[in-house]
Amino acid sequence: MSTKIYVPCDAVSVACGADDVADAIAAEAKKRSQDVTIIRNGSRGLVPIEPLVEIETLQGRIGYGPIELSDVPSVCDAMFGDGQHAKRIGKPEELPFFAKQTRLTFARCGITDPQSLADYKAHDGYKGLTKALTLTPAEIVETVTKSGLRGRGGAGFPTGIKWKTVLDAKADRKFIVCNADEGDSGTFADRMIMEGDPFLLIEGMTIAGIAVGATHGYIYIRSEYPHAVRAMERAIATARSAGYLGQSVCGSKHAFDLDVRMGAGAYVCGEETSLLESLEGKRGQVRAKPPLPAHVGLFGKPTVINNVLSLTSVPVILDKGADFYRDYGMGRSRGTMPIQLAGNIKNGGLYETAFGITLGELVDGIGGGTESGRPVRAVQVGGPLGAYFPRALFDTPFDYEAFAAKDGLIGHGGIVVFDDTVDMAKQARFAMEFCAIESCGKCTPCRIGSVRGQEVMDKIMAGTDREQNLALITDLCQTMKLGSLCALGGFTPYPVMSALTHFPEDFGPKTMRKEAAE
After folding, report:
1. Helix, strand or coil for residue 132?
2. Angle 137-147/198-212 helices, nearest 10 degrees?
3. pLDDT tens per residue, range 147-168
4. What is the rounded CA–CA span in Å between residue 239 and residue 199?
5. Contact between 10 and 49 (Cβ < 8 Å)
6. Most-buried pick from 72, 85, 201, 225 (CB within 10 A)?
């Protein structure tokens, strides 16, 4: 009987040499006359142990990592021998990083063969769609509404309300659009799920299509994600040939099909209306709202636009019920959130848990503090437009409303950690610079305000008319926040003002920073 050995095909693992490791293991096994099947699974999500090599044994899957090419001969000695090796980590699911998680969306990621439909179904795949096909569209929408699912892409808008709007809209065609243009710094959950469990996204979008009466869907993926593009295209072809997509989904009266489209990497195309413009072959510029995409969306038709994590949460909701999902979380933030730990952090990776865990637990407990070993000074939550939180706010629970109360954003769930060597004035200036580079140019507050913001920040950092320019940057941020057409200009003030509020010593003479440190 062939022995199964798992080597991730995830882009991070590949960047760490997983392809070469997989080839070397195959060669070693052949040389030793060992009958093995190498399965290229997704990543389990803990970066420091990648590439993680696992072998299936009678006791379960035993992992070794991180494995370099030079480790392969000795790891093969262990895998085909007594199992002992310096890089043996045992059963990955028993590591504290994984054992404490609540994996609903990422339950299969790192476990199954991403391109095996049979493997997907054997691990509860397509149970949600099977249930959805027994319900009316209105009942599907009601289930999603009752679950409390909110958009995981940043705004946190209730998913059920968006679906209900499109369901009620009258049109000859409707669309489902998946926003996979994951552009926030420190985020990688969308990429991981597309590479490691692509059928889950297909299932979620199919359920959405049936729920609102849409017959076609598009997955808009940034061009920087070639592995995800290939994984989704292959999985779509497999699902279509097996009858899970097409004119009759699973033999039902419902038609739904999917296509992948690549974006060119413009950050502003993560905004839903700019994404629609790009998807239609136009320049990625923000549309004025109203009308909302739910009424006038892709090609002028009612359109559901959801993030990858929103759509991949749907199958488990339909399978296990709204109450099951709603029982996780706190307040109006229900279910789980795949949180991405990045930056200067010891245990970088993906951590899925229910809403309510504190920022301090995530950074210090789960993340293990900084990789440099120096004290954590600030964390930015919610991408390049998210606020900087100091250690004094580490008791903030991971919850949409709790973060909003502290002038912060959860966004896409990315947490970027900085140690005490960071210069927060430079970080604030970077926010303005980023906005200037990525602005679509359609509205004046964003287009002009970001350029003026850089100039004012340069004067503050040079010590020129400090008090006047601090007042000016504050006024400019208020104008951008209230006057910008979309969140790019509207949210840029968050990192700027949070840096000013929590780290004022970095915006004055160098002696201020020195005195604050002492």
Report:
1. helix
2. 120
3. 999 998 777 899 999 999 999 9
4. 8
5. no
6. 201
